[in-house]
Structure formats: structure tokens, C-alpha cells
Records
---
Amino acid sequence: MVVSAALSVGAPAAQAQDATKSVKLDGFSDLQAGGPWAEGTVTVTNNSATDDTTDHLVLTIGYQKIALDQFAAEYADGPSGTWQPLTFATASEGDPRWVGGVVDLTGAPVGLKAKSSHTFRLRLKLPQTAREEMDQDIPVYAALSRTVADSMRSDKAAAWAQLNVKPGGLTTTISGLPAQIPLDGKPHPFQVSIKTANHFDWHLTKASFLVFAGQGIAGADAGPSACDGEVDVQDPATGVWHKVGTKIAGGEDNDVDLVKWATGPVDNRVLNARISLGKNWKSNPKGAELSFGYYPGEGPNYFWTTQTFTTTQVAGAPDCVSHDGSAAGTPSPAPAAATTAGTAATTGSATATATPAATGGKELASTGSSGSGLIAGAGAALLAAGAGVLVLMRRRGRRA
């Protein structure tokens, strides 16, 4: 077993980036939560006229993205080498839920001959844990440097590369949403299906809806006003409908309680919801959008799906959406041939299907915001101007 070195394996003189050295990462395209090993490679090259006897190959996985127990990794030296497990040290300070891990791959200098390259095989796995799973790319970062501590410093590492790996296996689908929603103030039911591969539990407990009015509409991302529209989610235990937020400003609140309101096994959760739009709601004639999941923020996000719809005026519709009394449980029928099949945001090959939500139900119960949300942080390695430090940006606003 290769065990990571301490965060410093010596204190040599400063080493600037070396144009004669390079690092290349490939593979891991089939990584799936709870799935088998996904293989990749890291190739290091020395194009100089002298042997490199000092640089170590340092591997960092999930820096400020995931916890140490959320991944496992092994390496093999060359095409016929035996797989060796890697034990990682904490890569960053702070919350242990997303510190990532760092390891000196071989525990010694690579020993690159002049004008030569060497390839190591890597493989990565995402085991089941009790933690909420990653919904963004997982950064795999490799560097040639004289110490582990120097590996993420632009003024110390000789060469580096980063590959952002997609964690597959999660599919989120909206189904039953009318392709054209009447502006009649009445509820129109649909379902959200959250399906995972490998019977994997992503521990997704909260989510948000967003109703986007479309490009060119003032306040398009502010959601419908209280009078003009709303989205409700049904509590299956009581039949009560709960009004939830629909605007970007509240998209981090994640006020959709998946623990209470979603039904089914951990790998196939279903949510009953409905949307109501009043006659005064304005949207782009080319299409508005209904989205669900974690608001993406700054980077890729694999728990987020969007479906486009248009609207149509209804003669005699009331000025305001109203769900008191019988109106709360009697959705109006969708226009003929208006129902779409739903679109999926997926990280794997699995597809999710759902039956349109049943009509009926009890009166509305409004819910408030439920704490801070999750915004995807940028996963790319950025060179901090003037600081000489290679930084992988922290994800913002994780829930406690």
C-alpha cells in the first residue's frame, strides 16, 4: 500500500514551472456512483536533455469538493503493473465533508530519464457512504513537484494537469408537465422522478424549483408573483399541498423537502407537484422554463433538470391564482395533445419515467425557506494572479 507523505517531503530551493516537463490526465469517463472501477491514466514527460531525479508525482482528488471516504483510488505502474491502493491525506483545511485528498503517488521521485515519458494507470471508485453525494465534477489533479506541499503552487510545481470527472448515475426527470399551460389560475399536475443507478443512495434531502419567464422578460428569474402563479408539492402522508419558492433569489433555500414529500426507494424517488399560472403572468412566447434540483450557480451540476413550456390565455380566467376550497384539489385538464414526455438531466445511461400526478388532494399549506442551499462551485484550477498559488475554487453554500 502506498501511503501519502506528509505535506512536505523536504525544503529544497524554489522551483519554477518547467516548460520541458508536462503532465497529462485521461480517462474516467465511465465513473458512476456505486459502480465499478473507472480507469484512467496519468502520463509525465521530461523533454529536457537531463534526467529528472527530484520531481515526485503528486495526485489530488476532490479538492474542496468531497470527503476522503467518498472515493477510493488505486494506481499501477505501466500497462502490466499490479494495482496498488492509495491512502490519501487531507488535501485542504475546513469542513471534512469536502476537503479532498492528496498523495505522493509512488512515495519517491518518479525518476524520469531525459527525453522520455512514463504512464501510470489510475482507477477511481465512488463507494456508498452516509454522506450527501457529489453533484458536480470531481477534480482529479496531478503535478510534478519536489514536495507534496509544492504541488499546487505555480511557482514551485514543474508541471501540472487537471481533469474534471463527471460522477455518473443520477437522472432527474420532469414528466406530465403540459407543453402549453393555460393561464387559468388552476393547478396542473406533474411529477419529478429522481432515479439513481447501482441502487445508490445520493442522500438528496432538499431541492428547489425555478420558474423562468424566458429571455427578454423583465424580472424573468424572479418567479411569478403571489397573484400570478405558484408551484406546490404534495405531502404523500397527509395529502396537503405545500407552496414552494420559484425564483433564483430563493433558489439556494432548497425548500422542497425530499425526505417527507418524495416517495419510493432510494434509487427511484418520485415527487408529486403542480403549477398554476394566472392570466396576468407574462412570459416569452417562444417558451418559459420550469427547473428543479440544486440551482447550478457557477459550474456543472448533475442534480438539475429543465423543461420548456408555453402558455395560452383563457377567457374569463380570474385575476389571481386561488387554491382555497375545492379548487385546491381539482386541476383543470391540459389542452389536447399538450403533454410532453419530460426532459431528463442525467449523469448516466439510466432513464426515469413517472406517471402523471393523481388529481385531488387537500388545501394548500405554505412553507417557508429552510436554511442555506447548495450552489455549485467552480472546479477548474485557477492561477491566482500575483500569488504564485494554484487554487481550485471552493464550492459555495453547502448545507450544514
---
Amino acid sequence: MTTQIGVPGFDFEIVSFDALEDAPDGGAMNIVDPGESFQMRLRFTGSGAMWTNLEKLELHYHVRYYADGIGITDEINLGEFFGNLTLGGGIYEATKAVSIANPGVYKCAATIYFFTPGHGQFTGLLGFSDDLVVMVHPHEE
């Protein structure tokens, strides 16, 4: 899990990136039926005085999810999630219901950046993960 910090004074870490069953307390999964809804989840956290200040400002964050087909399948924009930091937020979770229609194997990725409405992206802070593989197969059970 990679983060890019161009601003000194805090740590920012992606804790996990996974696919979950689309059900309350859904467990991890990597094989789904075509068109079946499932959850993409990115979890992240931060620490340090600068991070605390960003939480106090309730800085906004934007997560985007992608699936890149391996072989003959296409790249897909799976959607996005918006949220806000909150003071003492701990581990933040950005979860989005998604589906992939075409059978194949997909390398999934998530990016996260921070912004202030009306002022644009908070530069120097980027997170991304691309270590999740999902197989879409019509007989996954």
C-alpha cells in the first residue's frame, strides 16, 4: 500500500484495499458472477501534528476505484467515494458498491487524494493501491 507524502510533519498510510461480499458484515472475496454487486473498500489512517490539523479542518477526501482487465477485457472506472476527515477519526473506510459485467480477470486499483472545496486538491498527498485481483466468472459458486 503506497502513499506519497510531499508535506512533512505527518504519516499517511493505506491500511487495506479489498473486495467484500455485498452484504452486512460481508467477507472478503475475489471471485464474483458477471454483474454481481460487491463492495470495494479502501481503509486508511494518518498520524502526527499535521494530520491532526487536517482532521480539525475536516479536509475532504476523494477515492476512485478502477479495474483493469488482464488480456482482452477492458479498463473500467468502478466509481468514487467522497468523505471528510474528522478529529480523532482513527481508521477511515471508503466503501463503494460496484459490479463488473464482463467475465475475465481484473487488476483493481484505488486512488485517494485530499481537497478543500473551492480551493482544489491539497497538493503533496496521494495514496494508491493496486494489489487486488478479482475474477469475474459465471460459475463462481
---
Amino acid sequence: MRISVNGNEIEFVFTRKERGICSHSGDCYDDCIYIVSKHPRLFSRIPRSLALDALCATGGWTKKELEETSDNELYIKLVWVAANNANDSDSLIGYVSGY
């Protein structure tokens, strides 16, 4: 896995296995925890403010909900969103963008 931060965009480059682990029918939460736990240094490069903005922009959570969330929980959500975006476009690259 690789993670790049470019302005207000976070780019995740997955292996096929990682993408499949985090994007499948059913509950993916524990699977996303596994991926985040394998790459703690990669995730620590993502500014919290960007993670909040990017996740809020998806419409799945309010800013208030996200502000009350731990960094690890934000990373889990980011991986899930990015893996699903990659899967939807049949790509190994998933993006999550802020405002």
C-alpha cells in the first residue's frame, strides 16, 4: 500500500488483496482495522484536518461526529471509502478528497 497527500486529496494505492479485503459485501470494519494496523507510519502522514474534511465531503458523517472520532477510526473510515472508490472504478487507486 502507498498513500500520497496532494493538496486536499488523499490517494491510496492498494494491492488487489488489500482492496478486496476492505471492499466486499458484508461488514468490512475488522478488515479495515487489519489494513490500518499493518501500515501505521503511512497513515500518520495524513493531517487530521484533511481526514476530517475528506470524510465529511463524502456525506457519510457530520463534521461534529468526525471531530469526536480517534485518529485510528478516521484512518479506518478513509481506507473503507478509498477501497470502495477503487473497487467501483475497477482500479487499484482510490481517492478521498476534501473541500
---
Amino acid sequence: MKKPKNWIIVAMLTAIIGFAVNKLGDKIFPSSATTINIQLVDGITAQPKRTGKVIIIIDGKEFEESANKDGNVKFKIPEEYKEKSGKLKVVDKQGNEQYSEDILINDETNEKNIEVDVFDVEEFIPKNHKNKAYDALVNNFKFDFQELKREGERITMFYKVTNMEEEDRKLTFIPFLNVFFDDQGNQIKQNSMACIAKRCNSSGFKRDLSAWDEKRNPVSNSMPAGIPLNVKFVVRGVSKKATKFTRIDFDVRINDNKQEMQLTNVELPTTTGGPNVAIYGDFIVKWEGVQKQSETTFAQFKVFNLSAQTYTFEIGHATAYDNQGNQYTLKKTAFGKPANPQKNSEKLLPKSSERFYMPIHKIDASATSIQRITLKIGKSDYDFDEAKKI
């Protein structure tokens, strides 16, 4: 018997594949599937979010898709899940949940765009986090740099310090003598403090310098051999324009003998993410616009806690300027919704966000926009310069 020619084999395979597709196609690629389009938007920059991943869970079944370059995510949910309730979640690259909502799979969901408010923590972590260039070794005391935080004009540097000798030794800092030089030509001295473990130089920042000498305001601790302790240095009065410390001279004493510890080219985190975004330590604050509720007009903000810890976010008063040359003082804050402003602080869970509102009273009837808002966060003023329509 002769072997079939190649074209006969191809025809037979084509027929078999076609039959399988016709029979199984509806199950593998349901033609009546519900299509869900989701647009991921960065809650800080308002730009398409490309790194998000979306998960839809229905009856324990997970459907997972990633965003494309335009921040779009597309699902096709099989017909068998129609008219069923589910959960939609957005997670970051580390698997941390950033957003969730309940959804119902039906015709109303079909081709519905869902704007999801997300942010990527990695984009705002300072580049010098655990930068080994800022480590130091001083007379066999090892200084391991951990991180640097910038809160307005206040900079905090965190270290783990280990006594590498076999015996306990006394470590002393006299922060009054620390000197910081920035890239704007400024020299900052007599305006810093230091802590070893939970022990800080008791008087902190001093205004009256007349009675001071180099023996005043120290912080000391007996450092156990081989056991690292937390140390931090704090300096105030740093220019918001400064992008780095070109040099830092720390006053360090070991068993009361003065030592030299110097760092150079220490990069500083930025204080702004644009005209309507402020960065304060682990918080990012975005001015979203102006909202009217009944007879009251509110300035609307959103704060993000980028930390893995719960922190209390504190704000002070604000000053608003309209396009008619008028100035307004904003004193009260409402967290969550624009009603009954009563407090100026709120506890924020790790990697969470919260909206807050500040009423602007008696706005000029001819004003059509707020040109700028200056908001006090902690002890520092931040300007939001992007005009918002009233």
C-alpha cells in the first residue's frame, strides 16, 4: 500500500483541528464572554500606570492580567460567571494590595472602564537608601548607613553602629559641633542633634548659644562589644533647593577622645513631585483641586503613606490665593469626606492613602480659580502651584 502524499496528510490534520476548534472553541475562547476594560491611573502623577497587575476573583477562581504600556488591562470572563459577584484587586510588583472593590459580572460591566487609583512605592524611595557610600569606620566603630529622610527643612540620617572591639567602649556625639555643607553654598552648624538607641542629647536644638562650649549638649552611651545599636543624626534649616550635602563633619568621641568622621556628596531626596505634589518623609501629598459642597468650597488633597509602618500625618494651616488677588486662610481639616472639619491629624496605615479637605470661606464671587495653596506639613511650608478651577 502506498503512503499518502503530503497534501493528503495536511488536509486530514486541518480537518481534525477544525473540528476540535468548532467543538471546543466556545469553551476555550467563549464568544459570549464578558469583556472588562480597566484603566490603571497613578494616583500621584495622574499618568497611566504600567506596572500594575489586576486580579478578579469569582467563586474562588482567579483571573489575572497585567497592564500594557498604556495602563490598560483587558479581561474576558467566561459566560458561566455571568451575573455572579466577585472581587477586583490591584496589586503592585511585590504583591501588595493597592486597591479593591466588589463587582458584578453582567452586561453593565461589559466594556466598562474602571479608573483605579494606585501608586508605586519604588518610584519615591530615595536612591540613597542603604547606600554603602555613606558607611564609615571610626576607630573600629562600624557605622552602617540605613536610610535618609527629608521632612521639609529637616534631614534625618539613620545608622546601625557596632563596636568592633572585644570590650565595651563609650561613644559620644556633640551635635552642636557638627557642620553640614550643601550644594547651594550654605554652611549649617549649631543646628543638629543626635541619638544613640533611644537616648538623645537632652536639650535638642538650642537657640541661646551664648552659654555653650564644646562640652555642652553631648549624647553618650556605653557601646556593647559586637552588638549594633541604632543611631540617628538630625539637622534642621536645610534649604529646599539643596540636592546634596557636599560634605558633613561629625563630632565623634570614643572614650572621650575626639575622632574624625567625614562624609562627602550625600544625595538628598527631592521635596516635590511636580507643581501639585509635595514629598515629606514617607508621605506624599497631592493637591487634587477645589470642590463645592452646598455653600462651602473645599481645597481637596490626598495623602499617601509610603511606609511599611502606621504613621500620624499632621498638617497645620494653609493659605490660598485666587486669580483676583485675594488671599484666604484655611485652618480646619476634614479627613475622609468634606464635612465637619475638626482635626489636623490622622493615623495612616502602611502603604495607604486618605483624602482630606480644607474649607475656603467667603470666596470672591468673581474668582474663577485658586492659583496657589501653601500648606504647612509638620513644621515646613509647601507650595502647590498648579492652578485649579473653582
